[in-house]
């Protein structure tokens, strides 16, 4: 018993794959001669926004000490509670941070610490290469924060402070 | 007492009725309106120098300083009217002309009245462009440091030293915008109560050298407490951070210490943070004091006590609750109890009635007497050979060790493990100290006052009433001392002096015992 198979005949010039293949190859070949868009990371690096908020950096005074005066505003304002600050008194009787640690895992990079800092000491960095071999390495102590050299975040454009 | 004439007036649309002679500022407090002020302090004479408390009084020709203006019948006062706000804004701007904006490094930040009021009512930006006046930081002696730049010349400190401490060593020196607080040549703020000027100072001009740069005001946890450093029982606030007591501050109580606290009490807090505390129960096994569970230690203690007389050497720094339970233990075993009191120099504060740093340097001397303990300089003299000696939070400094050796066995219920106990104690039960538990003290005038837990006790240490309650239960004298409040209720039921009292009726200010009134008048 023959089953009723309906055979539709289509013109070969309409259904052949050869035309589509050639069309695809044409597009591919065109890209070979166009300008390349791939960035050759890590040899090449993309430029990042001036307002990029990356891992922190502590600014220092001329004599190499941290600018931080231990006022305690950044641990208070930090929504992720990632800043540990223990203050002490130096030989001149000034308050300074005995312990200043930022847990970069907990940090949500909101930038509040930079914004609240009255001494312009703690900054977020324009920096994204943060790989470490250990988890402990992501808790940055004061020494590490002061040793960072990367440029820091500009929270707003000085030419347009209100962002208009 | 003669009838006091009451005056009715309206403050910010709220009617209040206050005794004649009350200042507008105090009347406003009753109406629930805080008039900003610097120089006014309820514990000091009125000066009216800061001009911060200016308010608008209807039908008055000009703004009135509310601290120095008495209420009048039918007066209508506007505290937050545009005219009053404008005047206070001007005052704040003037105060900030020479005030450094160094809040990040100032210890007062967070509890500074200049910060608070500027935030509430001040200008967003100053208009003064010239350099600010500069004066060096000065050491005032005692615990006090003076940062002249921050001073707003409210003269609270001067008035305290003149009128309350009766030791006038401070004065306003220089004139005009060069004025600052000065101390007389060769004098120091060494008065026993001079530390109060630190609390009185509304800004960061007078700072405690002891707590300088240690903690920010907003980081501290606070608990109401009673000063354990002498028998006066000044009300205080314990301020802790990370389970460490950072500083002690007075808590107002008109019946005891008004607003003040002596330097001895204020600075003597380091023992509350001692690191060498005993934190696990211990039992002597094969001649060695070894760590044990609470159950094991309590069973061992009960076995020692079985059928023997207990002689309790108590510390007068234990709470009424703990002393009551120790007293029950004494009664149960037919023993005796004694305590001794460290002595110091008495130092009164002349401006406040019946307030002094007392010679008895322990909080609960009266409570220990009421609990049936005998005060003695040779506390172990009443002990009979073969007694079980219970040493409750006493280090036995200066007590002849041979006295203790007469005891059949020694049970230490204490916060620390003194040297002699390492070879002399049979059982050690660790307890919390007075900032780590709830309880009450009875001061020398018989006032029973509550203190609240401010920090956690180390390790397995238990509140003193709980540990002693367990010990009492293990020798078969009831149970149910699970909370400080339950224990106090049991004390109130058992002792006529405490009859009718409970933690709710004592609240934050305390109440005198039944016999207290007659003693004070006698």
Q: What can you see in these coordinates?
A:
With 164 residues, chain A is an alpha+beta fold. Chain A has helices at residues 12-15, 17-33, 73-77, 112-116, 142-147; strands spanning 54-58, 83-89, 95-103, 122-125, 139-140. In chain A, the strands form two sheets. Chain A has a three-stranded antiparallel sheet with strand order 2-3-5. Chain A has a two-stranded antiparallel ribbon with strand order 1-4. In chain A, a hairpin with a 5-residue loop joins strand 2 (83-89) and strand 3 (95-103). By secondary structure, chain B is of the alpha+beta class. In chain B, 24% of the residues lie in helices and 21% in strands. Chain B has 15 helices and 26 strands. Chains A and B meet through strand 2 of A and loops of B.
- Mean pLDDT of chain B, to the nearest integer, reads 92
Integer-rounded radius of gyration of chain B? 27 Å
Shape of chain A: elongated
Order of neighbouring strands in the sheet with most strands of chain A:
2-3-5
Q: Provide the CATH top-level class of the domain at 56-147 in chain A.
A: Alpha Beta
Tell me the fraction of residues in β-strands of chain B, as a range: 15-25%
The amount of helix of chain A comes to 10-25%
**Quaternary organisation:** heterodimer
Q: State the end-to-end CA separation of chain A.
A: 80 Å
Distance between the termini of chain B: 21 Å
Number of strands of chain A: 5
Q: Give the CATH architecture of the domain at 56-147 in chain A.
A: 2-Layer Sandwich
Major pleated sheet of chain A: 3 strands, antiparallel
Number of helices of chain A: 5
Looking at the structure, the CATH topology of the domain at 56-147 in chain A is Alpha-Beta Plaits
Give the strand tally of chain B. Answer: 26
List strands and helices in order, with pairings:
The complex is a heterodimer of chains A (164) and B (522).
Chain A: H1 12-15, H2 17-33, E1 54-58, H3 73-77, E2 83-89, E3 95-103, H4 112-116, E4 122-125, E5 139-140, H5 142-147
Antiparallel strand pairs in A: 1-4, 2-3, 3-5
Chain B: E1 6-11, E2 14-19, H1 24-30, E3 54-57, E4 64-65, E5 76-78, H2 82-97, H3 113-121, E6 137-139, E7 144-147, H4 156-164, E8 170-173, E9 180-183, H5 196-200, E10 206-208, E11 221-226, E12 235-241, E13 244-250, H6 263-267, E14 282-285, E15 288-291, H7 294-305, E16 310-314, H8 320-333, E17 336-339, E18 347-348, E19 356-357, H9 365-370, E20 374-375, E21 388-392, H10 401-405, E22 409-414, H11 419-424, E23 427-430, E24 439-442, E25 447-451, H12 464-474, H13 484-494, H14 503-506, E26 511-512, H15 516-521
Parallel strand pairs in B: 1-5, 16-17, 16-21, 17-20, 21-22, 22-23
Antiparallel strand pairs in B: 1-2, 3-4, 3-5, 6-7, 7-10, 8-9, 11-12, 12-13, 14-15, 14-23, 18-19, 24-25, 25-26
